[in-house]
Design brief:
Pectate Lyase C-like; ten-stranded parallel beta sheet; 3 helices; about 10% helix
């Protein structure tokens, strides 16, 4: 009888814990878990960080940020390798302040989310992500699914660094970086992303932040595109931030190799470097196509691609470029 009572008590306590998750909600699309505090973010991190290859607590779950979180979040959500976010996180237009330094359980990764196999949307982050030995980003270290309508205001400093996602094997759409981005390693720094691979896309994104890479590779939107099978796409993106590096530096993309398509992109600011520098693309190789792109000839002393003209790129004076942006 005593054992039965103990078992009932354990089940009752477990039920209470499950029903009291986060600040409300049941985790469904109609009734998402409500995130209101640093403690809720830490609870989400605990759910993801204790997941396994066989079970993930965020699978098919929905989360919604209900207010700004100004009490700095210091814990990354996820650990690279089977401890991934697989739910739907709706930032609801609110902001999370970050204070992320070296992460001992994932020493090479640093971002709010480590790896994303779900959807992250409508989220703003500020503060800082700082670890010179890590691959760093504001929103997500590695994206394998979808990031929509997110904004980074944080300063990102790392071995590799980007405003939204360091690595993209999915879709990034309608995102903005306003933060300062700095990288010491190669392939460096990107306003939105460092590295994009086969069949994936970055579209309708904007960088206004300064991007600096001391180890080579820098792009206003992407540092490096590397594909083997299917084309990656960078489309309808704008850079208005200063892009500065040593080599392989571009106003939109630093390095493009393999199959890729860069289209309808505009660079309005200065690009600085020593070798393989271009107003739109720094170094080009493989089957790369560029169409309907523009840059400001009054701001950028380098020509379209590796300081050479390109038929898919037009240089315009500032006033005409502003008219192009307004279309």
């Amino acid at each position: 009888m005593k054992k039965v009572l103990i078992l009932v008590a354990i089940i009752f306590a477990t039920t209470l814990t499950a029903s009291a998750q986060f600040s409300g909600g049941s985790g469904t699309q109609a009734d998402p878990y409500q995130i209101t505090s640093k403690a809720d973010m830490e609870e989400l991190a605990d759910v993801v960080n204790t997941s396994s290859y066989f079970y993930n607590g965020t699978q098919d779950k929905y989360y919604k940020l209900m207010n700004n979180i100004t009490d700095s979040v210091q814990l990354m959500i996820g650990i690279y390798g089977h401890r991934d976010f697989k739910g739907d996180f709706d930032g609801n237009g609110y902001k999370i302040t970050l204070a992320l330094l070296h992460h001992t359980t994932a020493p090479d990764e640093l971002a709010l989310f480590c790896s994303n196999y779900g959807t992250i949307r409508n989220l703003v982050v500020d503060g800082y992500v700082n670890d010179n030995s890590s691959r760093c980003a504001g929103i997500c270290r590695a994206n394998y699914a979808n990031i929509f309508n997110c904004k980074n205001l944080a300063n990102i400093i790392g071995e590799l660094a980007a405003g939204i996602a360091q690595y993209n094997d999915g879709t990034i759409d309608s995102c903005v970086n306003n933060g300062y981005i700095s990288a010491s390693g190669y392939p460096g720094a990107g306003g939105i992303c460092v590295f994009i691979v086969d069949g994936d896309s970055i579209s309708n994104c904007t960088n206004t932040g300064t991007v600096v890479a001391t180890g080579g590779g820098a792009g206003g939107i992407v540092s490096q595109i590397a594909t083997l099978i299917s084309a990656a796409v960078v489309a309808d993106c704008v850079n208005s931030g200063l892009i500065k590096g040593t080599n392989k530096v571009g106003g939109i993309v630093g390095i493009s190799s393999g199959y890729c398509h860069i289209t309808k992109c505009i660079n309005t600011n200065v690009v600085e470097g020593t070798d393989f520098v271009g107003a739109i693309l720094g170094e080009i190789s493989g089957n790369t196509t560029i169409t309907d792109c523009f840059y400001d000839i009054q701001m950028c002393k380098y020509k379209a691609v590796n300081n050479q003209d390109h038929p898919g790129v037009t240089g315009l004076p500032t006033h005409l470029l502003m008219e192009e942006l307004a279309k």
